[in-house]
Amino acid sequence: MSAPDPTRQFRLALRLAGRELRGGLSGFRILIACLALGVAAIAGVGSVRSAIEAGLADEGAAMLGGDAEMSLTYRFATAEERDWIAARSSAMSEIADFRSMASVGDDRTLTQIKAVDDAYPLVGTIGLSPDIPLEVALDGRDGTPGVVMEPVLIDRLGLSPGDMVRLGGEDFVLMAALEREPDANASGFSLGPRSILRRRALEGTALLAPGTLFDSRYRVLLPPATDLEALEQGARARFADSGLRWRDSRNGAPGIAAFVERLGAFLILVGLSGMAVGGVGVSAAIRSYLAGKVQVIATLRTLGAERRVIFLTYFLQIGALAGAGIAIGLILGAVIPLLLAPLIAARLPIPADFGIYPRALAEAALYGGLTALIFTLWPLARVQNIRAAALFRDEGRSSRLPPRPFALAILGLVALLVAVATLLSASARLTLWTAVGIGAALLLLALAAVGIGWLARRLRPLSRGRAPLHWALAAISGPRNEAAAVVLSLGLGLSVLAAIGQIDGNMRRAIQQDLPDRAPSYFVVDIQPDQIGPLLDRAEPDPGVSRVERAPMLRGVITAINGLPAREVGGDHWVLRGDRGVSYADALPDDTVLTAGSWWGAGYDGPPQISFAAEEAAEIGLELGDHLTVNVLGRDIEAEVTSFREVDFSTAGMGFILLMNQSALEGAPHSWLATIYATPDAEAPLMRDLGRAFPNVTAIRVRDAIDRVTELLEGIAAATSYGALATLLTGFLVLIGAALSGERDRVYEAAVLKTLGATRGQILRSLALRSGLLGAGAGMIALAAGITGGWAVCHFVFETGYTVIWSNALAIVLGGLLANLLAGLAFAWRPLAARPAQVLRGRE
């Protein structure tokens, strides 16, 4: 017997697949729709993210305010450092950036001040109202220096151009409203609206006194042939011990770029969850289609068709249709962002260059193709088990599990999909945990579907006498039930939505409800050493003030650990990425709990010692006895780690990663930080008194900071909710597919029931009960999965407390019940209208 010819088999399968395709899209519309929607969601998110990244790259110099920027904390560059920068640039601008208080009479509010020189801006133009040159505005009037402010700050203080305003106790005249600031995004997140004034107007004032909190920034224009990478390495080598931070036009707004990258990665993971839901629909659609092809397949087997030919026939057919679904999704994912570009751009605070981005589309196509393969192989693997005897017996239902080679191939494809998502994602850890979560949810839902069928069988004897309920339970527990498709599709979509709802609700609760109860009313910064005593004398006796905490405040950069570069030892930990707050203490502060080591003791005057935050030390890998090099105001201080202590940042109170002994730092110029806990009634009078007595001091109201963070969360929540709703829409499509695939069985069932005397009302109630019970079951499982997933993200990712948000949870359960009920009832009219004689005769 000659061996089969693979080429002949493939040609035969291709010809048979072509004939099958001539039958149209019947049975495959849901497959195409699920793939198209999932691919479109991923392609759309990827296209928008690519548009923003392209906009950031194209406008990098404009957003940064120059080709490159070097910044320092707490100090300005020395003459030698300035000469090094100037020698390598064609133009340079020096900026000081800090917070202060703007006041008119007793009204005081926080503002972010940018003190500029005559060269500012190097790139872009300032937009003012009235339209006057910036240099004219900053010259002021009648010997009083000028200032320009954002409109929201002007409105808040009730000002008009020409009015006087005090900034940190110094008089300025408001000359214009700041309508456009070309480098606004380069400064990152700020707590107050912007004010711009001239740098030399601050000479000799308390606004930039030694120890005050400010950043100095040196922006430069470079010759056209400059190698940015080489210049960056040279700057880092030259200023290795100075605490310098570098940015350039390759990434003019790194904070925004990182945020966009991570948010885009998260949304793509939500999209992959939608693809998993769509995959369930793909698998259900293929099973339903192949169930109707049992007679055709059995006939082909009777005529001598090999198993390989049968498999290839339907693999090629379904592959072509899946390719069509992916292509439709790619077109939608590319075109919809272009059509919505004006609306999206209007809501973005950053530039976006919308266009067709092949990489984003290729990623979406890859995800779609792998998902289609994973969920197609399982039902297709069972096709080759159909024998010729199926012409005479109902053998269309073979083993639920695929043969071992197919099972191994499916597992390999799942591993490949996870690996691709991990490599392409901005957060490998988040991707892996999301994949684990999706897999666990699918397993839980599959077990739940089996459990629902088992429970229905156990409850059937108890439902005798209640005909509609008995029929519904019989249908759910029967061999051809649709419980698996309904529970998997609806349950996974609702699980994603439930988890996002729980995470969002807990973050909002923590910020808006829990945090204000534990957080101070105000952070007070830039307190000079001779002001801390009088400030305490005013605040502590106030009956509305429950507590005042204070500490000396410096900024430092950990540059080395045991003589090695810090980031080589501790990795990319957030503590090592830039400068951090540093303080000192003599005696052990109240409420400080040491977890290891010993305190240096009051009056200690030996070599510098450090007490480090215990949790962060463990993450970095620090041990007692390690030596850290900390750069403070350009001076390296090497100190031994002698203790670890608990630091709780969740209260928004005072907490320092790094504490040193008093003699190590008290000689350095520094200011003080205070936190004031006061009742709402006491806040305003206290701040007025402190503002009059200490005009240079900046008070940051915690509630205002919370409001800014809440605004940011609202945008994130909206974006993630859109992604979750797309997943839920895919799930609803799968429900429709499940209802369509089971419609033939329901028509036959209704015909039998009518023959036995059932009324239309009883049949309708039975169908409604079936849909409602499956929807409620899927909703309950989704509720458990969503609560568990929300807890895991809050606990392990955000490291916050967790409370079940029951309003969101109950909405999920009701949503699952109603969604499945509506989908079931929408396809009830044909079973109700069926004529028993015609249906039963057709089954003979």
Automatic annotation (TrEMBL):
Xref: InterPro entries: ABC3_permease_C, Membrane_comp_ABC_pdt
The UniProt record lists the keyword Membrane: yes
UniProt domain ABC3 transporter permease C-terminal: residue ranges: 269-383, 725-831
Localization (cell): Cell membrane
Main subcellular localisation: membrane
Superkingdom of origin: Bacteria
Name of one Pfam family that matches: FtsX
GO cellular component: plasma membrane
Keywords annotated in UniProt: Cell membrane, Membrane, Transmembrane, Transmembrane helix
Topology with respect to the bilayer: Multi-pass membrane protein
PANTHER family according to UniProt: INNER MEMBRANE PROTEIN, MEMBRANE COMPONENT OF PREDICTED ABC SUPERFAMILY METABOLITE UPTAKE TRANSPORTER
Name of the protein in question: ABC3 transporter permease C-terminal domain-containing protein
